[in-house]
């Protein structure tokens, strides 16, 4: 059989169409031997190979043969059954990868936002259990600063004066610190700090508005709010905790 020839399989009543070359990725497997009619478990019926196995789990077998990776849904739980199917088909590299179940299961990721309002300023500190997530979020957040007159400090839109971007404080790889609002400078002048969070282009000076935009950004990224509490009532520090299931990278043969 040519390795480019189309092969049709009926696995537990579920029909799959693929190339012979895909099934021959592992020459010692039963799927490769099937093409040479060397395995009686596979019956050729009306031009289709029939095997009485789990048709739904076979989709992961096919994905592995096509990509040489194990990449499973976050809600997947049938690791033992899938490993048993891999062993049946003689795909021992796949069975070995599935034995590393702890590497394939989704990981719980925690993010904590601390927010404090003090007079005309708002302070933010974000902690994350995953440093890459915190790094990505830090690249989305920009703080701009500039001088502003007393009459316009509360305006939601920045003045036409040049605003200078400020680097975020990064105490560690797992957290970041920034602030917005205004503080007294001299005369009727104030130092104003605006916050922008990509992909939103607005520059916000009001702390509550920034907090709302930050929440919106995290929820769109797959996080969910699990708790809100006051951690320092005297300093008016509120703490918001988020979590999400982070899908692991696929294991490769």
UniProtKB/TrEMBL annotation:
UniProt GO cellular component terms: endoplasmic reticulum
Record domain BTB: where: 5-106
Keyword annotations: Ion channel, Ion transport, Transport
GO biological process: monoatomic ion transmembrane transport; protein homooligomerization
Pfam families: BTB_2 (PF02214)
This protein's name: Putative potassium channel regulatory protein
């Amino acid at each position: 059989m040519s390795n480019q020839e189309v092969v049709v399989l009926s696995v537990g009543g579920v029909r799959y169409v693929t190339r012979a070359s895909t099934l021959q990725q592992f020459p010692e497997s039963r799927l490769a031997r099937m093409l040479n009619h060397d395995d009686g478990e596979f019956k050729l019926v009306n031009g289709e190979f029939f095997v009485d196995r789990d048709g739904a789990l076979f989709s992961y077998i096919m994905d592995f043969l096509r990509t040489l990776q194990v990449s499973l849904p976050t809600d997947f739980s049938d690791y033992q059954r899938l490993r048993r199917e891999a062993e049946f088909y003689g795909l021992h590299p796949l069975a070995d990868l599935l034995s590393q179940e702890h590497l394939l299961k989704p990981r719980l990721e925690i993010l904590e936002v601390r927010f404090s309002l003090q007079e005309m300023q708002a302070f933010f500190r974000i902690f994350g259990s995953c440093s890459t997530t915190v790094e990505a979020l830090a690249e989305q957040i920009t703080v701009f600063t500039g001088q502003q007159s007393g009459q316009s400090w509360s305006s939601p839109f920045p003045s036409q004066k040049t605003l200078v971007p400020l680097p975020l404080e990064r105490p560690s790889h797992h957290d970041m610190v920034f602030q917005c609002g205004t503080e007294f400078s001299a005369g009727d002048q104030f130092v104003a700090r605006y916050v922008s969070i990509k992909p939103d282009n607005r520059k916000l000076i009001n702390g509550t508005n920034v907090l709302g935009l930050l929440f919106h950004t995290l929820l769109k990224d797959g996080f969910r709010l699990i708790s809100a509490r006051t951690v320092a009532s005297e300093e008016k520090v509120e703490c918001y905790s988020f979590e999400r299931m982070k899908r692991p990278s696929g294991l490769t043969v």
